[in-house]
């Protein structure tokens, strides 16, 4: 099982960025994909999850708005799009596979650093 994420992104405030997470080694639609972020110097924050089987997202309340989860089942890739970026969006964004039965996040991507700066 592998989750390979897109690399480092640098954006200006107000711009958008789409972070990808390409899954391999398992049936993509059999597990949720969760998104977690880590702001520099802070702990992990759960942003929400998406069900690749039907594309249904579930956002943590704090992260509703300006974030959009999506999937492309033809390429087994999940995405999080961050819009109207602010400096406080600077963080490492991780995707993780979550089992439907145990709800454990058992495999993680390597993280994608998004830096928002003018």
Describe the overall structure:
- The model has no long low-confidence stretch (mean pLDDT 96).
- A hairpin with a 5-residue loop joins β4 (32-38) and β5.
- This protein has no helices and eleven strands.
- Strands 2, 4, 5, 6, 9, 10 and 11 form a seven-stranded mixed sheet that branches. A four-stranded antiparallel sheet has the order 1-3-8-7, with no helix packed on it.
- 31% of the residues are buried.
- The radius of gyration is 13 Å and the shape is globular.
- The protein has strands spanning 2-5, 9-11, 17-24, 32-38, 44-51, 56-59, 67-72, 77-82, 91-98, 105-108, 112-116.
- The chain is mainly β and 118 residues long.
Structural Rg: 13 Å
- Roughly how much helix do the residues carry, as a percent range? under 10%
Count of beta strands: 11
Main sheet properties: 7 strands, mixed
How would you sum up the global shape? globular
Which SSEs are present, and which pair or pack?
Layout: E1 2-5, E2 9-11, E3 17-24, E4 32-38, E5 44-51, E6 56-59, E7 67-72, E8 77-82, E9 91-98, E10 105-108, E11 112-116
Parallel strand pairs: 2-11
Antiparallel strand pairs: 1-3, 3-8, 4-5, 4-9, 5-6, 7-8, 9-10, 9-11
């Amino acid at each position: 099982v592998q989750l390979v994420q897109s690399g480092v992104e640098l954006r200006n405030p107000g711009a958008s960025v789409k972070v990808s997470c390409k899954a391999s080694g398992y049936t993509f639609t059999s597990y949720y994909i969760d998104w977690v972020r880590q702001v520099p110097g802070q702990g992990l924050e759960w942003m929400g999850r998406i069900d690749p089987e039907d594309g249904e997202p579930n956002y943590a309340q704090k992260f509703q708005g300006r974030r959009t989860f999506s999937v492309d089942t033809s390429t087994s890739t999940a995405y999080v799009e961050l819009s109207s970026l602010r400096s406080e969006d600077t963080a490492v964004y991780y995707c993780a596979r979550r089992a439907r039965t145990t709800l454990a996040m058992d495999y993680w991507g390597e993280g994608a650093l998004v830096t928002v700066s003018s």
